[in-house]
Write a structure and sequence with these properties.
By secondary structure, the chain is mostly helical. The protein folds into two domains: 1-122, Hypothetical protein af1432 (Orthogonal Bundle); 129-211, Hypothetical protein af1432. Helix content is 58%, strand content 0%. The protein has helices at residues 5-12, 15-18, 27-41, 48-57, 73-86, 92-104, 116-127, 131-144, 168-174, 186-210. α4 (48-57) crosses α7 and α8 (131-144) crosses α10.
C-alpha cells in the first residue's frame, strides 16, 4: 500500500504544526522514526498502515521538555492526529489504534504499549534517541534548555544521582543508556544495544579529554 507521505509532509509542515516543533523533534526526526519503523516491520508482523501512519504523526504536537504539561504531549498529539486523519480517507476503524501508538510512544508519558503496532512505534522513536544521532539530539535539547555540559566535580555520576535538569551528560545516565532494556522487539533491542555501545565509547573518550 502507498502511504502518500506527501500528505503527511503537508500536514507536518503547515504553520499550525511546524510552529510547534523544535530542532530535535523536526521533520528530519520524524523521517528517521518512519525509517526505523519500516526496518522493524521487516522482522515483526503488524498492521503496516497503523505503524507507518503513527510514526509519521507521533510528534505532530510538541511541548518543551520543561513545560509543565510535557507528560501530556503525546496524548495531545494523538488527539490532533486523530482529528487530521478523520479529515482524510484513512480508515476510521484504525484511527483508535494509531492514536494509542502515538500516546504510548512517549518515554515521559509512561503509557504502556498495548498493541504490537504501538510497541513498534515506541521502539522506532526510542532508537532515534540512541547512537550518534542520539548524542546530537541530546545536546540540541540541552542547549535549548540552557543546561551545562557536565557537573564539574562528578561529570559521570560516579558518586551521585544524575540530574538532567542541570547537566547534559547526566541525561545519558538518567535515560538514554537505559533505553535498550525498554525495547519491545528483538530487532530494535539489538540495534539499541549497538547504538548504546557507541554512546558509551563517546563517554569514555570524553572522560579521557576532561580528566
Amino acid at each position: 500500500m502507498s502511504f502518500r507521505p506527501i500528505d503527511f509532509k503537508r500536514f507536518l509542515t503547515s504553520p499550525e504544526t511546524a510552529g510547534q516543533m523544535d530542532n530535535a523533534h523536526d521533520l528530519a526526526h520524524i523521517k528517521r522514526v518512519v525509517k526505523n519503523a519500516e526496518l522493524i516491520l521487516k522482522t515483526e508482523k503488524a498492521d503496516t498502515e497503523i505503524v507507518i501512519t503513527a510514526a509519521w504523526l507521533h510528534d505532530c504536537l510538541i511541548l518543551p521538555k520543561n513545560h509543565p504539561d510535557r507528560k501530556k504531549a503525546s496524548i495531545l498529539a494523538a488527539v490532533k492526529a486523530s482529528r487530521f486523519l478523520k479529515s482524510t480517507s484513512f480508515p476510521d476503524i484504525k484511527i483508535k489504534d494509531v492514536a494509542h501508538a502515538i500516546e504510548a510512544h512517549s518515554y515521559s508519558a509512561g503509557i504502556q504499549a498495548q498493541t504490537k503496532e504501538a510497541c513498534i512505534v515506541q521502539d522506532a522513536d526510542r532508537l532515534d534517541a540512541l547512537g550518534a544521532i542520539g548524542i546530537a539530539r541530546c545536546f540540541l535539547i540541552g542547549g535549548s534548555m540552557n543546561r551545562a555540559l557536565y557537573n564539574p566535580t562528578d561529570p559521570f555520576c560516579t558518586e551521585r544521582d544524575p540530574d538532567d535538569t542541570k547537566w547534559n551528560i547526566d541525561h545519558f545516565y538518567e535515560k538514554l543508556l537505559k533505553l535498550p532494556q525498554t525495547m519491545n522487539t528483538q530487532s530494535a533491542k539489538k540495534e539499541a544495544l549497538r547504538r548504546a555501545d557507541f554512546m558509551k565509547g563517546y563517554l569514555e573518550r570524553l572522560r579521557e579529554e576532561i580528566e
